[in-house]
Amino acid sequence: MALKGINAYRKGNLKEDIANADPHKLTLMLMQGALDRIAYAKGAMERKDYVAKSEFLSRVTAILINLRDTLDLDIGGEVAENMFALYDYMIERISEGHVRNNLNMLDEVIGLLTPIRDAWVQIPESAKQEAYAAQREKRQAV
Q1: How many domains, the chain?
Q2: Which InterPro entries match (predicted)?
């Protein structure tokens, strides 16, 4: 019973965080969510709880697809194209790790996504504001 209350509180806080988050923070939350769910999936895999593993990896895949599909290839150029390919690769590895019950494949994705998340945290505020301004200009031009 107490866990339901705690989980409801967490969901409420998450909804509030999402409602108040800027695009940078949302992306960071998605990356962290993917990493958390990979860790949960690994635990489920070790416990042979294949239903939970499947649910967690399905969520990871959805997050990675979202991260990939929200890249702005026009503004981001070669960097965005490389990130697109990297997210595609991570999606493939998650799928293969799921089918093969291979923890090493999941660890590989953790090893690829963690430095991206860490670099994302280090983006200076001025660069974030510049990116938001470029996005606004692009939307207004359309």
Answers
A1: 1
A2: FliS (IPR003713), FliS_sf (IPR036584)
